[in-house]
């Protein structure tokens, strides 16, 4: 019989039990056996599609009851079955009330009884999955309506969601992520904390103007506000945690200060961090070489695998002229001979200071400095850098 895709996890140190499951179900299901709790939980974290989880009561590690309770959080759609020799009222009570087990079976268990229990558990799993899919579609529609309404009052905060969602789905496909609902919800809700911030702080941040320590603290705590808003909504508990950690750098920088580092940060939070910063670094036309160069300057903040994959994935359909390496500079770093990639605009009024395609000279750079002192100029400024020596340039401004 051809092996199916249903995945069954067996947590029991008894090698005879493990062999029995392999013998009964290994030919037509995927069976993963473990002898203690932590390895089994780690496996579940990497295989959210698990259909059925079997556990013994006296499982090495944290015990069978605590294991099934933790498994419920990691794989809520999996049917959980306690298979044990413990038949005391206390054991049964803990199994049902604390572990929230779907079924309780006593050892030794006949093969026919175990096969019947597996069939019943699979049916329960399929019903949970069906209910979850319906709930996700309903919740997704509600979230979209909420975002559309909030965007009317705070369009600047939510204008990135459409672009970032498409980029996130492309990355998810390359990563082999089969379930993308939580990723999509995280992207759609990611600006929620920003929408609650004072608009002047966001304007200064987007224009690369300096922020006071108090303003920086307010900005950094936007993910915390988002988590507080979402954590009590059923089915969005994980999403709220991803958003809470979305400002956390791979190197341990950012918010929260005592949060996880490296690969301990959930993958969805790492994707959000990368794509949000990429969006801010990109022009209206989308990411280009300059945007990725800006991220590379602070590459320790990002998962190196994700950064490389994003560059490879999101740049594959970018016109060749936008793939050229350009510089992203603050005014003090501009050089004569640099050519503006975008219009140079004032920070608040968006008044045109210099148009795109303009080759900078010492005079035009001073003009930008004067405008910045008077009204502020949006920075950083993206330029194409030429190799001509400064003394060969003619100042025509």
Automatic annotation (TrEMBL):
InterPro entries hit by this protein: CheY-like_superfamily, Cyclic_di-GMP/3'3'-cGAMP_PDE, Sig_transdc_resp-reg_receiver
GO BP terms, alphabetized: phosphorelay signal transduction system
Domain Response regulatory: 7-122
Pfam families registered for this protein in UniProt: HD_5, Response_reg
Protein name: Nitrogen regulation protein NR(I)
């Amino acid at each position: 019989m051809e092996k199916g895709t249903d995945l069954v996890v067996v947590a029991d140190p008894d090698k005879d039990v493990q062999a029995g499951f392999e013998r009964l179900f290994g030919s037509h299901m995927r069976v993963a056996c473990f002898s203690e709790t932590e390895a089994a939980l780690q496996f579940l974290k990497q295989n959210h599609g698990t259909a059925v989880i079997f556990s013994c009561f006296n499982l090495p590690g944290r015990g069978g009851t605590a294991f099934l309770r933790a498994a419920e959080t990691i794989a809520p759609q999996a049917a959980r079955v306690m298979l044990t020799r413990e038949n005391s009222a206390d054991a049964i009570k803990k199994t049902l009330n604390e572990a929230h087990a779907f079924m309780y079976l006593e050892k030794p268990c006949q093969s026919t009884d175990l096969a019947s229990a597996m069939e019943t558990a699979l049916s329960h799993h399929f019903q949970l999955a069906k209910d979850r899919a319906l709930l996700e579609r309903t919740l997704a529609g509600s979230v979209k309506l909420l975002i559309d309404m909030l965007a009317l009052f705070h369009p600047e905060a939510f204008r990135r969601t459409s672009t970032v969602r498409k980029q996130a789905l492309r990355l998810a496909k390359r990563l082999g992520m089969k379930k993308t609902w939580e990723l999509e919800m995280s992207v759609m809700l990611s600006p929620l904390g920003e929408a609650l911030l004072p608009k002047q702080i966001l304007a200064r941040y987007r224009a690369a103007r300096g922020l006071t320590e108090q303003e920086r603290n307010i900005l950094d705590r936007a993910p915390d506000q988002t988590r507080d808003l979402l954590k009590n909504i059923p089915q969005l508990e994980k999403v709220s945690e991803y958003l809470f950690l979305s400002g956390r750098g791979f190197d341990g920088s950012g918010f929260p200060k005592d949060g996880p580092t490296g690969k301990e940060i959930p993958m969805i939070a790492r994707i959000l961090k990368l794509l949000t910063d990429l969006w801010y670094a990109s022009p209206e036309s989308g990411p280009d070489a300059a945007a990725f160069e800006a991220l590379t300057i602070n590459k320790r903040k990002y998962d190196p695998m994700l950064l490389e994959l994003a560059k490879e994935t999101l740049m594959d359909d970018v016109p060749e002229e936008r793939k050229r390496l350009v510089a992203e500079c603050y005014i003090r770093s501009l050089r004569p001979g640099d050519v503006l990639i975008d219009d140079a605009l004032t920070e608040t009024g968006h008044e045109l200071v210099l148009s795109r395609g303009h080759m900078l000279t010492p005079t035009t750079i001073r003009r930008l400095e004067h405008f910045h002192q008077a009204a502020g100029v949006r920075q950083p400024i993206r330029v194409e850098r030429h190799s001509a020596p400064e003394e060969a340039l003619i100042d025509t401004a």
